[in-house]
Specification:
disordered N terminus, single chain, two-stranded antiparallel sheet, 17% strand, disordered C terminus, three-stranded antiparallel sheet, alpha+beta
Length: 181
């Protein structure tokens, strides 16, 4: 199983679930602070986010290659950080806890067809979030591992470029107002 400390099979055997060891890695206030504060703070923020995003990429690669699944809901709210104990043989001076990026919310995950390595959308009730949708998916309703990666790149942009984050928040507020009418 992939990162068994983070992801496991639901007792029903029907879907993957995240074990409750993750916490929020970024929030709107953190993204705003990184934009407003001096360059030194911004650099440490980018380095920290970069390390977590490498972990997200590693996990997605294992999901796509080893388990044959796609997440289909890569959003900022599903990118988390897990804090775990360092192994007994840690080096002197190392902190006893290690942080690692983890991905939660596997309810939309789906198996890839072994021959096409894609997932054809068959359940019209499954909704995919704005951050996850690609042009290719909109036109074909076929979800590919590359769609998870496109969504992850969008999340990087939202997490590291405040104007992009702000625009998405404003668009989301307008969209939710529109639905209330």
């Amino acid at each position: 199983m992939l990162y068994p400390e983070f992801v496991g099979m639901h007792p029903s055997g029907s879907r993957l679930v995240t074990k409750p060891v993750c916490s929020k890695v970024m929030s709107g206030s953190a993204i705003r602070r990184a934009h407003l504060f001096p360059e030194a703070f911004r650099q440490s923020y980018l380095q920290r986010m970069g390390a977590y995003f490498v972990d997200y990429l590693d996990l997605l690669e294992k999901c796509h290659q080893d388990a044959g699944i796609v997440h289909r809901d890569i959003t900022l709210r599903n990118l988390m950080v897990a804090i775990e104990q360092q192994p007994e043989q840690q080096l002197p001076g190392q902190p006893p806890l290690k942080k690692r990026g983890c991905i939660i919310d596997w309810e939309c995950a789906a198996e890839l067809d072994p021959t096409t390595r894609t997932h054809q959308q068959v359940d019209p009730h499954i909704r995919i979030s704005l951050e996850t949708i690609t042009d290719s998916y909109l036109n074909t309703l076929v979800y590919r591992p590359a769609d998870d990666l496109v969504a992850l790149v969008r999340c990087w942009k939202l997490a590291t470029q405040f104007p992009s984050y702000k625009a998405l928040k404003e668009w989301g507020a307008l969209a939710s107002d529109h639905h209330q009418m």
